[in-house]
Amino acid sequence: MPRTSKRALAQDVLNALPDAQQAVTYLAENGQDTLARAVETVTKLAQDAAEATARATQRQENLDQSYSLKVTAEHRQHINTVVEKGAKEITPAVHKRLQMFCKGTWTPDKPVRARRGTAPEKVFVNVRIPDELATEVDRIGKDPARVAERGGYELGLRQVAIAALETEFRMPKTRKKSAKP
């Protein structure tokens, strides 16, 4: 069955290069110099094209999707402060929690919705997440067995990622001042 994807075809070309180079040697040894040069030229062009296709495919696979996660302005400021101090980095911290979620070793709490008009102002924190990880988190977040384990609530990728931010970059508790008598 012929391979139709560019990546598969590029790999087939790269796999065939040793045979093509043997053919060039055979032709040259048997007095077919013109034919040997022609095969060598075509082989080199095919190799260059296959390597370029493989590099382009790898670059495309390495691209991570950027997700905008809504958090409170106060929380984003806290996250930025922690990052500026060098204590943590956003993307690795979120990836760690997402992987824990996929393995079943961490489960975010059920998201709490504020009543209409009472939620604090939200701002965005951008995080890059590999497509494969994002797809897995989304699949697990909606998996009926895992939903049942969580108590019946589905989770989307953004909800899990926001919970990961909240867990990894916990806001310090503020003390309420007590009134003095």
From TrEMBL:
This is Uncharacterized protein. It comes from Streptomyces olivaceiscleroticus.
